[in-house]
Amino acid sequence: MVNNNINKNFILIAFFFTLIFLLASCKTEINTQIERPAILDVRNSATVSVMHFKGTSEMAKILDDGTYDIQLYRNIDSSLTSNALKVDDEQRITTALTESLMNYFEKTGRFSVIPARIVTQAEKDGEKPPADLIITGGLTYFGTSFQQEQKQTTDKKGNNVKRTTFYWRDITLLVMYSVFDTKTNTLLDNREVKYTVSSEKTRERAFVPEASDMAIDKVKELAKSIVKDFMPYTEDITFLLLFHKDTEMKTATTNAQLGKIDIAIEQFKKIYTNKGYFEAGYNRAKLFQVQGDLTNAYLLMAEVYDKFKDERAEKALKVIEEEISSKKKLQSQQIH
Known about the structure:
By secondary structure, the chain is an alpha/beta fold. Helix content is about 50%, strand content about 25%. The chain contains 10 helices and 7 strands. The chain has helices at about 1-25, 55-65, 85-110, 115-125, 210-230, 245-255, 260-275, 280-290, 295-310, 310-335, and strands at about 30-35, 45-50, 110-115, 135-155, 160-180, 185-200, 235-240. A 5-stranded mixed β-sheet has the order 3-2-4-5-6, with helices on both faces. β5 (about 160-180) and β6 form a beta hairpin. α8 packs antiparallel against α9 (about 295-310). The protein is flat, with a radius of gyration of 30 Å. It starts with a helix and ends with a helix.
């Protein structure tokens, strides 16, 4: 009995140390957040106008006559005919998209929203539009179909019991939009986004949602994503530290995991100076990057690469270069 207990204890201790070894041999993750610049460079813009989005018939005419380019906003109030079969649904969708865009821009606190009618009037009067940015576009396709199918249920013996009819709706929606900078007479963005959506299947025809309601949910999501492109954003980033079996390296890595970045940086510095480990120099450079000190991160990683010619350091250098470029862009947007 005593021998069995000893064996069990030995197995548990061996398992414990094996687990510690496996965990220690894994790359260490350090999580942080980095502020990114806005996707669209609108640093000198303070005002925006959202022109009412068009329906499919109006967009078809605009696209056919070639005016959908950087001057599309000029056609906003033109009296073009719409498809009578879909005009009500499309009007609801385009109104929802236009109003959602205006609301999201107002919520940023970064832009003042100029009414579309003022921009239109200025254009008619031959004057410069009073908005720095103009957002415009419309539906390039809107299709919907009502679907149904019958499903047959059986009892345990395999006999037919009953047939149940299920109903649902499919929609396909394409939205084109443009962002025009009136100060530089430049088209900043021009995209077409496609949505294909099916409602949940239901036994009651009355519970199938209207096509316009399904589309409105999507264009509200689109409005939010469009406005995000105008604003800096925060991204979650995970940095990986390299493992080394040296006890001092493990201690420095543990401090980094605990958030004691400054202490870990000094410990890795000492190890790199005294023992010359590649991993120590690499990890120290990475921790500079975690702190946002990209200058020291780049200088040290370049030194490490020149010394060891390790492709891991080469890849890390390219990432740091991208971070430096991103940070400069963010700073330029904040200055203006």
